[in-house]
Structure to design on (636 residues):
C-alpha cells in the first residue's frame, strides 16, 4: 500500500441503515470473452479475505447474466471485519475500488457512480494515468489512478486460443463457485496484483498462492503506473 | 440403480443453485428433466456437468418446454424412477396442468423452484407467487433461506415424499438470487450418512409389463370422491412423517430444523414478523439492532406451507400482540388486497382465544432486497398498532407510504 492511501471503507450509519463498515470492489468486464477474468478478481480477493478471518462475498451482477459477448458486465466483492448485513443486496452502490478489465471501458458509462471520496480506479491499459485520467468521470473522488498493461504482462491470448478453457468454465457464468486451481491464469493476475498492492484490501501473502499465472502477478507488482490524486485522511 | 461417486464430508462454498444440484447428486436421482429458465438454470447446468463427468449416473433429459419437463417427470416416476426437475417464474406456470395429475397418481417427483416474478414485471427477482399459485395441487411445499438449508431440504423432502404413508410430490423452493445466486458455506455430507437417511427409492406400484397396473385412468364421477379423499388424507397424514423426517435428519446430520416454524428472538417479543424465505437473513440483523434499542421484536419464519401447520401457527402466533406478515407474493384482490400469506395466518388464528393484531406488508416485490431500514419502518407500524390497540389498515405497501 502507498503512504497516505488506506484500504477505503464505508463508515457505519449510511442511508441504507447499515451499522457495519465495509469495502466494496466492483469489476467491470466484457461479457463472455473476459467474463472469467472479472470473476477471478472478485473470487480470489473474497476468498483471501475469508482466509484472513474477515467476512467477504463475491458475486456477479444478477441482471447482467446471461451475458452477451463484449457487453459490459459487473462482478462484485464486499469485504468487512463484521458479518455482511447487506449480503442480499444486488449491486455495489458505493464502490471504493473499481477495476476496468479492458481499457476502452474507460469511456461510455459511469463506472464511477456512487464512489465515495478516496477511491481507487485500476485500468488494464498500455496508456499511462496522465493520458487516461481525461476520460474518467468524477476523477476528483479518486485517491489514485492505477494503470497496468495486464494484457501484455500476461501474454494474453484471445478467444480463439482459449475455447477449451472457456468451455470447461461455462458453469460459473451463472455464479457458481470457482475452482481454485484455475484462478487467474491470464490477465486477471496482473490486475489482482495492482488492486492488492495499491489498496491493501487483502495481504499479498494470502492471495499469491492461489494465482495460477505467478509470473504475470510478480511482473505486474513492478510495472504499475500509479497516479496519486486526492487521498482521504487515514 | 444408479451409482454415484460422492466423497467424504466436507465444507464447500456454493450458491443455492449448486447446492440443489449437489443434493440431487447425493440423492442419487435416476432421471433429471431439464428445461432452462433463469434463475434455476444453474442447477441444471451443474447437474449436466456432473452427468457428463461421470460423477452421477442419471438419465438427463432435455425437454422442449416446462410442460414436457413435468410430463417426463410424471412418466419416469410412474416407471419407478427417483426424479428431479425444476423451474422458475413463468416456467412453473407453463407446467401447471401436470401438478394435479402427478400428486393424483401419487408420484413423489421432486421439483426445485428458484423463485422469479411472473410477468409483469418478469424481471429475474424473487416473488413467491410462481410456486405459491400451485400450493393447493397436492405437493409438499416449503422454502429455505440459505444454501445449506436448500441442500438439506431436498434430502428431507425426498424422504417425506417417498414414504409409503405419503407418496406425494414435493416442491423445494428457494428465493431466486437471495439463495440461488448467493454463495454460502455448505457442508456436503458423507455418502454413508445420505444412504442411511434416504434409502433407495421403491415405488409400490410402478408400471411394469410383468405386473400390469393402471395409473391415472378415466373414472366415473362416483369414483372421484374416494380418490380425492385419499389424496387429502395423504397430505394430512404427511404431517407426522414430516416431523419424523426432521428428527431423523438431525440424528444423522446434526442440523436441527423445526419442520414448521423457525422462531427468532421471540421469547419476550410483543411484535413479530411472519415470513418465508431468504428475507429472514436480513430480518435477523434488523431485529438484533432493534433489540439493542429496546424494541421487543422477533421473527417467525414459515418453513413448510403445504401441509399448512394450522395448529402450530395458532399456538405460536397467539403469544404476540402484533403480527406483521411479509408477503413477497401477489394475491391480487385477495382478503387483504395484498398477498396470499395473510389470509391463512388469519384463518389459523381464528380459533385463538388471544388473537394478535395482524398486518400485511407488501415488501420485496419485483424481487427487491428488503433493506434494514424497511424492517425498521415495518416494526414502527407494528409498534404503533400495538399502542393504538388496532390496526390503521390491513395492507401496507412498503416504500410507498410515510
Amino acid at each position: 500500500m502507498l503512504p497516505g492511501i488506506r484500504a477505503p471503507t464505508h463508515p457505519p450509519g449510511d442511508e441504507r441503515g447499515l451499522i457495519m463498515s465495509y469495502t466494496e470492489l466492483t469489476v467491470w468486464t466484457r461479457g463472455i470473452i473476459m467474463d472469467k477474468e472479472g470473476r477471478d478478481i472478485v473470487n480470489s480477493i473474497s476468498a483471501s479475505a475469508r482466509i484472513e478471518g474477515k467476512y467477504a462475498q463475491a458475486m456477479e451482477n444478477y441482471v447482467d447474466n446471461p451475458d452477451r459477448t463484449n457487453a459490459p458486465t459487473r462482478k462484485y466483492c464486499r469485504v468487512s471485519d463484521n458479518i455482511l448485513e447487506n449480503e442480499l443486496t444486488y449491486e455495489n452502490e458505493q464502490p471504493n475500488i473499481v477495476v476496468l478489465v479492458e481499457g476502452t471501458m474507460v469511456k461510455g458509462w459511469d463506472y464511477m457512480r456512487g464512489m465515495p471520496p478516496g477511491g481507487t480506479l485500476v485500468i488494464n491499459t498500455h496508456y499511462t494515468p496522465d493520458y487516461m485520467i481525461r476520460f474518467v468521470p468524477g476523477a476528483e473522488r479518486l485517491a489514485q489512478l492505477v494503470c497496468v498493461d495486464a494484457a501484455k504482462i500476461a501474454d494474453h491470448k484471445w478467444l480463439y486460443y482459449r475455447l477449451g478453457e472457456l468451455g470447461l468454465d461455462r458453469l460459473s457464468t451463472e455464479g457458481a463457485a470457482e475452482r481454485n486451481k484455475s484462478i487467474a491464469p491470464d490477465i486477471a493476475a496482473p490486475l489482482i496484483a495492482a488492486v492488492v498492492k495499491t489498496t491493501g484490501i487483502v495481504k499479498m501473502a494470502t492471495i499469491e498462492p492461489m494465482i495460477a499465472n505467478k509470473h504475470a502477478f510478480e511482473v505486474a507488482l513492478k510495472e504499475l503506473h500509479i497516479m496519486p490524486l486526492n487521498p482521504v485522511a487515514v | 440403480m444408479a451409482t454415484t461417486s460422492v466423497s467424504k464430508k466436507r465444507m464447500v462454498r456454493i450458491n443455492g443453485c449448486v447446492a440443489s444440484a449437489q443434493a440431487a447428486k447425493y440423492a442419487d436421482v435416476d432421471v433429471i428433466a431439464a428445461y432452462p429458465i433463469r434463475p434455476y438454470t444453474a442447477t441444471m447446468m451443474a447437474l449436466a456437468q456432473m452427468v457428463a463427468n461421470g460423477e452421477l449416473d442419471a438419465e438427463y433429459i432435455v425437454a422442449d418446454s416446462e410442460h414436457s419437463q413435468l410430463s417426463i417427470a410424471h412418466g419416469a416416476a410412474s416407471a419407478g424412477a427417483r426424479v428431479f426437475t425444476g423451474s422458475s417464474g413463468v416456467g412453473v406456470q407453463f407446467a401447471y396442468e401436470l401438478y394435479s395429475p402427478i400428486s393424483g397418481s401419487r408420484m413423489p417427483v421432486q421439483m426445485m423452484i428458484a423463485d422469479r416474478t411472473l410477468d409483469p414485471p418478469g424481471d429475474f427477482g424473487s416473488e413467491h407467487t410462481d410456486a405459491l399459485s400451485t400450493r393447493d395441487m397436492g405437493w409438499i411445499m416449503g422454502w429455505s433461506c440459505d444454501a445449506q438449508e436448500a441442500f438439506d431440504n431436498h434430502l428431507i423432502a425426498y424422504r417425506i415424499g417417498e414414504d409409503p404413508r405419503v407418496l406425494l410430490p414435493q416442491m423445494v423452493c428457494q428465493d431466486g438470487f437471495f439463495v440461488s445466486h448467493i454463495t454460502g458455506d455448505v457442508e456436503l455430507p458423507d455418502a454413508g450418512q445420505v444412504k442411511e437417511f434416504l434409502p433407495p427409492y421403491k415405488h409400490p406400484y410402478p408400471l411394469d409389463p410383468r405386473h400390469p397396473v393402471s395409473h391415472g385412468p378415466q373414472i366415473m364421477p362416483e369414483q372421484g370422491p374416494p380418490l380425492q379423499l385419499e389424496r387429502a388424507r395423504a397430505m394430512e397424514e404427511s404431517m407426522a412423517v414430516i416431523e419424523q423426517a426432521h428428527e431423523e435428519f438431525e440424528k444423522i446430520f446434526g442440523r436441527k430444523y423445526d419442520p414448521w416454524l423457525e422462531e427468532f428472538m421471540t421469547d419476550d417479543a410483543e411484535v413479530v414478523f411472519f415470513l418465508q424465505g431468504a428475507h429472514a437473513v436480513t430480518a435477523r440483523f434488523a431485529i438484533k439492532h432493534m433489540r439493542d434499542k429496546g424494541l421487543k421484536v422477533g421473527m417467525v419464519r414459515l418453513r413448510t406451507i403445504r401441509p399448512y401447520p394450522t395448529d402450530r401457527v395458532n399456538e405460536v402466533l397467539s403469544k404476540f400482540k402484533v403480527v406483521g406478515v411479509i408477503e413477497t407474493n401477489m394475491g391480487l384482490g385477495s382478503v387483504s388486497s395484498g398477498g396470499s400469506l395473510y389470509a391463512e395466518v388469519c384463518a389459523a388464528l381464528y380459533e385463538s382465544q388471544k388473537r394478535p393484531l395482524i398486518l400485511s406488508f407488501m415488501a420485496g416485490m419485483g424481487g427487491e432486497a428488503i433493506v434494514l431500514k424497511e424492517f425498521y419502518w415495518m416494526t414502527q407500524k407494528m409498534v404503533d398498532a400495538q399502542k393504538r390497540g388496532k390496526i390503521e389498515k390491513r395492507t401496507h405497501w412498503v416504500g410507498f407510504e410515510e
